[in-house]
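The following record pairs a protein chain with its ligand, flavin-adenine dinucleotide.
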Amino acid sequence: MFFELNEQQKAFQKRVREIYEREVSPFVEENERKETFPVQLFRILGAEHLLCLRCPKEYGGPGLDKISECISTEELNRICAGIGSGVMVQSGLATDPILHYGSEELKQKYLPSAARGEKIGAFALTEPDAGSDASGIRTTATRQENGYRLNGSKTFITNGTICDFVTVAAYTDPAKRGTGINLFVVEREDLGFSVIKKLKKLGNHSADTAELAFDDCDVPKERMLGEQEGGGLRQLEGTLKSGRLTYGARSTGVGQAAFDALRSYIKSTSRDGQSLARSQAIRFTMAEMATSLEAMRYMTYRGAWLFDQGLASMKDASIVKLFCTESLQKIVQKAMAIQKNIGLMMENPIQRFLRDARLFKIPEGTSEIQHLVIARELGL
Ligand SMILES: Cc1cc2nc3c(=O)[nH]c(=O)nc-3n(C[C@H](O)[C@H](O)[C@H](O)COP(=O)(O)OP(=O)(O)OC[C@H]3O[C@@H](n4cnc5c(N)ncnc54)[C@H](O)[C@@H]3O)c2cc1C
């Protein structure tokens, strides 16, 4: 067993840390305040080969592994979780199903431009009445002479107002509950596709989130992923597994940012004439936070390693998401408690970390759903 990043991975970590500090940090304050995603960043990160990291070179990506993706994700989310959301969807949910189930033509059409940041992708599964139970979606894709006609609405869609294309889940056969679903690529220009509204959120302010509508939206049959009708939810399993591991890296990044901010604060602050860094209660809290971060990081990178070997089960991925997102809640709550009123001030980053962390418990399966998955795979 070997628990350290190798020299190549350490060099990659150093490189991405420098790039994110230089290229992403300048966008954070303004875009968090305006609640907008800095779309120009997609091209900047594309030029640095930091989008769609696991996409093979023949489709325009750098062809890296899951460990590298987690390294990059941790560093990006240390700078900004909102921006991290948009990048994660571009590199995972929107493009992964195309890579694994799209025809050669679809791969060539969407993946290189997504990897270069020229086209922005979104992924639309959740609906106003269906989230955790994906089989409850109502969007339909009705067979036409040369394609499918989509009708329905989707909500909480990351990159929703800024996307050029969206990978959409819809029923081709509503009678086959759960199994009669397919994934389709819809383009922004397709007639019948519209953005209903942009959504305002508690956290991840610089992530773009929207409600979308498909009203008699016709797509050619070539834009269905896979050759047969049905099985769309099954196609999402690998993407979900990968996404849950990514949340381990996102949580570690935000947790590390909170820890670093708190460390600077206690080293530079005194109460009643004594440095906070000399308070035993605070030293113990910092030690606990550091311990949690260590465990989150090991668990995430072990999960990523298993994924790269083709050995990660959904239980492995769910354990990573559950443990890391829940541990993060405790870290940010403790950081807020130590800073007291100062932590609540909007110029203080701790309030942003606390708001961002709360959202992490929901996408790619809520904490309750992770419990269900783990218990099921334990044979219970
Ligand atoms: C910031 C953010 C970004 C998102 N981005 C996207 C995106 O890009 N694309 C997309 O398609 N979706 C996206 N989502 C939606 C997200 O995937 C769903 O919100 C999530 O799956 C939960 O669905 P829901 O909100 O409908 O809650 P529900 O499924 O209605 O659940 C409500 C509550 O009940 C609990 N619950 C549900 N079922 C059970 C059960 N069987 N046992 C015990 N408890 C249960 C849940 O844990 C939750 O607490 C995003 C959400 C957020 C917050």
